[in-house]
Amino acid sequence: MSTGLHIGEDGLARPAWASVHDDLREYYDTEWGMPVRDERGVFERLVLEGFQSGLSWATILRRREGFRRAFAHFDVDAVAAFGPADVDRLLADEGIIRHRGKIEATLGNARAAIALRDQEGPGTTLADLVWSFRPARTPIPATAAEIPTTSPESVALAKDLKRRGFRFVGPTTMFALMEALGVVDTHLLGSHRRGTSGVWANDGTPVAEGNTPS
User: Fold this and answer.
1) Where are the domains of the chain?
2) CB neighbours (10 Å) of residue 106?
3) 187 annotated among ligand-binding-site residues
4) 28 an active-site residue?
5) Is 131 a catalytic residue?
6) Is 49 a catalytic residue?
7) What is the pLDDT of residues 112-123, one digit of tens each?
8) Which of 27, 28, 131, 200 is catalytic?
9) What is the CATH architecture of 36-181?
């Protein structure tokens, strides 16, 4: 049975999706699954995962700088202040995916993120909320077929975010978000990135603070 891993010219093992193009390989090697804990960073990934729905990740990744320019580098307060004229501007912006529903959802999600701060009190942000759904263990897939697309935690996170007014936050999209942020680690066993986040050990157990991953 194939594991789904590909050995690159550099001798490193990566999943098939990260072995096709240089930009995907660089994203996998340097960013995907590494912990992101700041509000702006989590909001950016939330927006990009929402826009990715129904499309390939490569399509989104190659427009990432366009998204950053269009959405004020994902400053939550700035995006929350966007109005109808900004929606029209974004619908004409060829640097992003011009989908009215997703654009309007991004503005609404920024406002929901601000409301979250007010509801939960100082020091609680969208990032805090997402990371609060970190599981006790992470998957340890040996093959691509063993990588889940949802989890009880992603279902619960999606339900919580929807209750708070967020959109385009279904369980599958939220699981992909959790993977991207390092909240879970679904790197295949044998991948050179498995257990490198500093959050999860190679065997799926949490890394104690101050320790290095095994």
Assistant:
1) 36-181
2) 28
3) yes
4) no
5) no
6) yes
7) 999 999 887 767
8) 27
9) Orthogonal Bundle (1.10)
